[in-house]
Protein 1
Amino acid sequence: MSIIVTDLTVRYGEKIVLNDISLEIESKRWTCLVGPNGAGKTTFLKALLGMAPYAGSIQDKGVEVFKSHKRNVAFVPQHPQIPQGMTVAEYVMLGRSKRDGWGNESLASRSFVHKVLTQTHLFGMQSNLVSQLSGGEMQRALIARALAQEPELILLDEPTSALDLHHQISVLNNIELLKEEGVTIISTMHDITLAAMFAERIVVMKEGKVLLSGVSQEVIHSPELKRAFDNRIDVYTLDSGRPVIVASKEKHL
Amino acid sequence: MITEHGAIAKIWNWRITVFATLILLAVAIAAVSFGPISINFFKVFKTLFDLPGGSTGQDRTVIMELRLPRVVLGILVGSALATSGAVYQTVFHNPLADPYLLGAASGAGLGATIALTSTNHNLYGALPIFAFMGGVLAVFTSFIISGKFFADPNSLLLSGIAVGSFATAIQTYLQQRHSASLRPVYSWILGDLTSASWSVVAWSSVYIAIALIILFSVAKQLDGLMLSDEEAYSLGINPKRLRIIAVAAATLATATAVSASGLIGFVGIVVPHLVRGLTHRVTNRSLITIAMAGAAFLVLADLGARTLLSPAELPIGVITAFVGAPFFLVVLRNRRKVTQ
């Protein structure tokens, strides 16, 4: 199963946010969208979710994704609305709503949430309020809720933004749990080095268009990646063979 | 949260709902028993269920024609206001939201003032209809002005405030032009259940029952509205449609409650927080419990209103605020201790 994006265009009024994108996203792989601010990465995720009206098509087996996946697409937002007074267990349990029906709490689901909380190292914190979690814990709670959904496809919008390096790796390891479950992962990320470390495929976007998509190691060494960032990034390769992408030092200030 | 057999504990325990229902029953029977004329608790019970040994004559009339409709109206209005308040707080992500937020109170106030200041005295009897129409029209206007078909709850909230202010301005103008109406309007604003009769109970129960059935049927999904729209959508609900259904039903319940009993404040804010504070659960599965608690709270407040200064009556709004505010503060303080 692959997701086939054909001539995808999204407009907000006169503004074209996604411009005629055609792309193939492999199933059961981690695909990461990278690009500067305003490239249309988040809008792409919203279109996949069915929350941004679009022209063109995003199809899986000939059916629009947001229709065919309506019951099993998980979404992890960059800025979640944090419900006041809700505990971690309640928050993660929301992920079971589509499987069990809203508000039903089968023993199987409560066992599943127990497992997910353990996987994401949140067990022991299940009675804590989500409003009192740290940034890294909140991100893990979001991923735990997504795991609880048992999704076929998960969309993650900047899952590591505003986290320190330790928590970034911890969260990305948690996302890898989903990949082990056979979930198709599509994420956006600002940190291209981390994207290359974890995602198998990278899509480079700029101003609503896809400049390049392909296997991570090939994409990060391509000139299109530098072009997307107006040649303001440098790509280095460590002795271990791992690439590191950093912002170039500004020459004219 | 204790785990059982490698599973997390249940989030909502329905025994709490049963407990709230039992409290409501006890409060209701007490409210029918006590008053300027006290009637034996068991006699009241037998009279209500038409069992041998029940009251006859004047006592029966007091029970069946005066106190019982008042208690039933209290149950209807209390459950309507408490449930609507809880729903508004979820929909608007605002713990201070109350059922009068979208201009329902100001609109109903304007409708009532038009009826009370009219030179046509026939309109006075139609006060509930005017209040109902005023409340519904104000909320409907807020919807229209906010635009985008409720895409943004905040814009609806702001337009509700604007519409409410506008309706209050017209109401004040009308009162100034008809100073004789100041007292009845003020009395109506404080709210009371003295107008309770079986006919008021009959028409208000229809609208409140419809509204509550709708709200209880979507109660579980309302938890999804505590998240962002994208998250809610990915969990399988249509947040815009659910918000419209929830606000429309809550407005119907509020407008009916206001037209039957005037503006009774504090119930819509205090009761949902009381239930959530005491159970340490914010889930909207508690909506039925909140309705039961709202009903019990208002029936108890009305009992206080008509017995504390007997034979005179206090406005029920004074009791709800006087009792509700300190109790509310204690619960808030305890909740903060728990969450710290």
Protein 2
Amino acid sequence: MLAFIGRRLLVAIPTILLISVFVFLLQQLLPGDPILAMAGEERDPATIEFLREKYGLNDPLPVQYFKWIGGVIQGDLGISLRTNQPVSELLLQKLPVTIQLAVMALIFAVVIGVPAGILSAVKKGTVVDYAANVVALSGLSIPNFWLGIMLILLVSVKWGLLPASGYTPPGEDLVRSITTMLMPAFVLGTALAATLMRHTRSAMLGVLKSDYVRTARAKGLYERRVILRHAFRNALVPIVTLTALLFGELVAGAVLTEQIFTIPGFGKLVVDAVFNRDYAVVQGIVLCTAVGFIVMNLLADAAYFALNPRLRKS
Amino acid sequence: MLRKLSLTAILLGATAVGAQAQDLRIALQSDADVLDPDQSRTFVGRIVYTALCDKLVDITPELDLIPQLATDWSWNDDQTELTMQLREGVTFHDGEPFNAEAVAYNINRSQTLEESRRKSEVASITGTEVTGEYEIKISLAQPDATLLAQFADRAGMMISPAAAEEAGADFGLNPVCSGPFAFDNRVAQDRIVLTKFDDYWNADEINFDSVTYLPIPDNTVRFANLQSGDVDIIDRLAATDLEQAESASDIEVASAVSLGYQGMTINVGNGDRADSPIGENPAVRQALSLAIDRNALNQVVFNGAFAPGNQSFPPNSPWYDQDHPIPERDVEAAKALLAEAGFEDGVTVEVQAPNSPVPQQVMQVVQAMAAEAGITIEITSKEFATMLQDQSAGDYMASQVGWSGRVDPDGNIHQFMTTGGGINDSGYSNPEVDELLNNARTTTDTAERKQYYDQARDILVEDLPIIYLYHQTWIWGLRDAVSGFTPYPDGMIRLEGVSLED
Amino acid sequence: MAHVSDPATADSVLDAKPENRVWKKFRSHRSAMLGVFLVAFFVIIAVAAPILPIQDPTATSWSAVRAAPSAAHPFGTDEIGRDVLSRLIWGAQASLMAGVVSVAIALCFGVPLGIAAGYFGGWTDTVISRCTEALLAAPFLILAIALAAFLGPSLGNAMIAIGLSATPIFIRLTRGQVIAVAAEDYVESAHAIGLPTRKILTRYIFPNVLPPVLVQATLTVATAIIAEASLSFLGLGQQPPAPSWGSMLNTAKNFLNQAPWMALWPGIAIFLVVLGFNLLGDGLRDALDPRET
């Protein structure tokens, strides 16, 4: 197990390098000139040339890349073209925000999605199953922005219950921080809950028909015990993979949710950075999310081993 | 006893004032860029500067220039020397004194800082001479009618020389100016917080302890924040939300027609892509202009809240040429023009438009209107950075763009219409127009300038390198607790005299 | 229902050939048939749009901008006075294509790569998995804008972009499932008796991989339909004034206060199609599941 994790961590380094090269090249393919946007109405060629030089955009591509990666090794991620802030400072500012959103959303997703999935699998073909499905699918097919704006109009404007948008750091005011994040986390969570519910249902259906569940039933165990102890435990394998995959959906979903609720997190940072062609910021974010993905995938694979006794043996 | 009572009253009063002193929350449409007046370029950045950095001169809502840090000024006879008297007793947020040396430093920085985006705005200045602690003489190469208006904007914002010297190009991370509020902190895309500067020369007019700017790009969400009372003032309320805002009991609305314009820039001479029917043929451009019902456009997309337009200046501007009123839509005349130019079967125009809802809506309306005159418009939506590059590189046929506008008319026309002008993406070049616009720039007599602009307009309405469509109206939404707010056509939010009564 | 408890039917199911058995099970699946009906309904509408007696989806009317539903416009009009009903019907084409084609692209790449990674393991797995991670880590937006610049704006290229960005999830899902199945006793015995790899893959691995992949595919259809909307605003998807449900919704969000019908109808349409595909997926899943009798 430890050897496995160690091997994976070793492979992670080239993976991250691969990702950084990939995104670096992809960015070069983007149309649009960041300097032109930065220069604004000042189109003095000398100024534009100076800015290009200052941000190293005149160097050949490999030089640009190695300068950047060299900086990264020393902990310097460059500075934002738009605000001149150091990228590392920006990332540190934004990371906790998105983590808070993601964790709260995941809680919503698991609390709604997993029980609903178990219930609809156990009660397959009944009204309960259909209802759970319809609710889950609405969660999936209602676009985030629609649900988000509707919630803002209803909960904040009409009832005045929660802050309409924005972000408050937990250190500043914990209660307000959580209440501000409730609606966005719910919006992000519902879409994930739908995915989670559907997969839980599918996995549970498979397991419920398997021999050991039949055996457990035959032994006369209580149904609740059969379902939770035997069936659900085995259905967990695909559910855990999926939760790791959901990390990707979380990040993608956070992009939209953060836009709607004006939450200054990773998602909003990356969108604005891409649109402003703020290369250093985009690179920094990608590096960060790449590490996140790798860690999540590693955890998911480790969970396979932990949850699947047969794999553990071999 | 009486004394004791009054003392208590004073103390109570003091606490009451202390308790009243509040934070004003303003929601902006987007996040500002770097907060260095010499380096920044965004419109919202200028809104923040209004509270952060005082300028040499300011404007009235009627666009008259009034003193701010300069209390008085005068020109020499041939208009090449500007002498300014400066306000005494002003200090920067870091305690450094404001004086003629500081002004000289600032002008020099705008001209020589390599990152400066102000160079063209102060290009006419050849030198400064400190003629007293509070008097400075600015020499020009030739008369420049635009200079004072530039001093009413970013080029006239005074930053602390000591702080600027220390921070260099990184000044924007921690700006130090002399405005009513000092920089406190900034979280990119979340907030910019300014706190009251106690030593401000006009501190009596300032009624807040702090002001927080929150960028909220989505129109609906920004408005929702106002409705729920989470913010006190919002920038750019959507025209389509106006009706609802006006009918709400706890919301006030203020508006002013902007100084800018929105229109379609046609590529008439910027590279190969200018070789198109619409690029080569003024008649086609005239036909397109005639095919558009500008009033209907305004009604459909903006509920009639904006101002239809056909020139670089809005119809309510003193610079607007009344001899060329907004043309009535005339589809037959448009078809006739096309036929005359040899396009009986119609023409196709590819228009690039920014990928945000309002421009898309505008272009689709124009598309439908033009189709009736036989002009097929193909809309290509592009995100802004791409569009900007394609436009400056001449890789477009027509482009839907706007301009936020400047106080001096020159800022709305010169760099767009003169040969080789800074933002002349259209590639338009006409020596006659060049001469007229250059004359208008170097003439300080208003009536004479107006004549030059009118003469240029006579040519431009025929050539139409830009087909103007409408002028945005700045609409601010305010909680009814906010009072003393004055709408300005430059779209700024000036906080002098504004107060919050809760 | 899916459980066929009636012994007589069960016998006939068991007697049939595998293909027939699957089809019979599917036919008897009531909710799956509802799914078929829903999907078919929208497909027919999309195909028949040109011959249906509806208004021109691009015809504007300045006197009826954001007009509420009425006899002339049963679903109301949009922000520039176009008939929402006819835009909805014409938009079905773009949206169904965006949903189905991009998922098909993702499946074509994702499933074989996932099987290869999971079954062969070792270097194959390492290379595929690491590339997957790279693709997952690249923000969708960058990918989309770069593709838009390269391929030029069109609905087809939007599908490619969406399909590519949905591929990693299928690779990961398939791989995970294959690893789990490959460790089962019957696969190990199949190895032991020397069954060729191809047979093991088709007979044992693939059928077990299919259920979760189908579920995910039907879910991704929904995401893809909605993703098309954001892409059309980047200049990659359906170009104005041609309609798609996604772009209709995207515009409608600015008028939720004033013209809720603009968001309502495309919202309902997306919901029904997504429901249809998911019910269909469920039915297929049950019918293909070898364990289910």
